[in-house]
Amino acid sequence: MEFRWPFKKKNRDQWIGIDLYEAAPSVVVQSRACIESCASFSQQGENALDEWLDANMDAGTPAVIVLDEAQYELLLVEAPEVPDEELAAAISFKIADMLSQPVEEMAIQAFRLPPDAYRGRMSMAYAVASPKETIRDIVDWADKQRLELQQITVPEMTVLQVLAAHNNAQNSAVLELKEDHGVIRLYSDGALYLTRQVEVGFKALGFSAEQPDEQAEEDAAPQSAEHEAESLELSDEPENDTDGVLLNELDLDELVLQEEQARDSIDDQQTENLILEIQRSLDYYESQLGMGQISNLWVFSSQVDLSPLCEKIKPMIHTKTKQLDLNSSLPKAGVVDVSGTCKGLNQSLLSLGGALSYVAS
């Protein structure tokens, strides 16, 4: 599902995905060769994103923009028996009373759930409704940034692109945690089957939003060949081995200690509440939708590192759980390489999905 505005022929060697999440917008730059760079602006917001785009992107760069959850409504409804090209218009009449604004003021797109959902008993579809004013504002903003807007899409679809890049879109759940709530999305065979809100956010679990790292922001910008050469020269210098101590061994011990402390600091009761929410979704997927068992659970956040949470809940849940290291997992999947400058890629998952959407569409 996508809002296309306007359609342009793909003739560029570089394009970007932008996640407009208000609390932590992010951008990923992709080329035909690799994921070149990324930047996340937690605690800084849209102004920092504007400045970054102005400093680093050429005029006419193709862009896929991912809406913040506050910019659209997602509704699950019974699908009318109409051709696919008429689905959005037909659904508009069904959801008119469910929307926060008059239906004539909303841009609406729709996509069907696969026929095997709900054991084939009924045909269902998701309707995505975003205020036309919001869409116009995004178009105007992209024009101001001199971007060539290709698509406006939603997180449900960009997460699917990241799953597809890992060849892992079969029976997978993806849990996104924000400060005061979360969203779990269940996918199978390249399609979205279920999305529901989780009433536990990372703040209740004991995490705090990470402050931006100035050095990481410098690394996020695309580097010139001269700068890359200088970096290579610096990396050839021997490490300082003070008093003959093996620093790497000390660093490893400190890392293990930090990981143990991070796990111990996570709230046990809220962890149990989160697991209960996850299990309810997995059970619904299996029993009510009539689908098989979920084989993978991905956990991610645009604002915090959730790897300690993954380690804590692994023994408590039967589904394989992890926070992916996108810098290493994407090249292993064999779909796209990742530049060494992408230190914040795990926090830019939605904008990465936007960049991947440009290739897939």
Secondary structure elements and pairings:
Layout: E1 3-4, E2 14-19, E3 26-31, E4 34-40, H1 46-56, E5 61-66, E6 73-78, H2 87-95, E7 106-112, E8 124-131, H3 132-144, E9 147-153, H4 155-165, E10 172-177, E11 182-188, E12 191-198, H5 202-205, H6 214-220, H7 225-235, H8 247-264, H9 268-287, E13 296-300, H10 307-313, E14 320-322, H11 326-333, E15 337-338, H12 349-360
Parallel strand pairs: 2-5, 4-15, 5-9, 10-13, 13-14
Antiparallel strand pairs: 1-9, 2-3, 3-4, 6-8, 7-8, 10-11, 11-12
How would you sum up this structure, described in words?
The protein is α/β, with parallel strands linked by helices. It has a single domain, classed as 2-Layer Sandwich (Nucleotidyltransferase, domain 5), CATH 3.30.420. The protein has 12 helices and 15 strands. The strands form 3 sheets. Strands 1-9-5-2-3-4-15 form a 7-stranded mixed beta sheet, with helices on both faces. The protein has a 5-stranded mixed beta sheet with strand order 12-11-10-13-14, sandwiched between helices. Strands 6-8-7 form a 3-stranded antiparallel beta sheet.
